[in-house]
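Quick one: structure tokens for this chain, please?
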Amino acid sequence: MAYDYPLFARNDGVNRARRRENATGGFSLVELLAVIGLLVIVAAIGAPFYLSYQRAQETNGAAREVVTALNQARQLAVTRSTSFSIEAQTNPDNRFRLCSGSATPCPGGSVWTGGGTDASGWRVLDNGTRITQNPRITFNSLGGATATGTLRVQNASATGCLDVVVSPSGRIQITSAAACP
């Protein structure tokens, strides 16, 4: 009696050739174009939203940087038992510095220099953001603000503004600006 082999074992070479012919790998040109077209549409819809988000974060980052500087001025006033003020300069400089006392512009010898400042105590806002409104803000030795006001920061593309408001109690908060200049 003859042993009956399975079909795939007897004609293994022929079956492999048939499998290679039927199993063509990859995608067709139409499928690739459809996927690329879909990606282009999604990118076109998403790009404006991303740019808007990026500008808002740029403005928010500048406002937080100003809040940090104001909190630092308040802390220096309390720890050194003397008044500290912030002096800001608008366009084209867009910078600020801290000084002891309540006189602004800062008189010589009273400028605070530390991390992130140049030799004259100036700090520049990042990402091309601008200070567009700069009142004289002074903190006393108890942490209260003797001179209060609102610093306004604006992003580099001038599409968004935020106000950094200092209350008489010394509380500092970020609020939305009524109108951007």
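DSSP finds three helices and nine strands in the chain.
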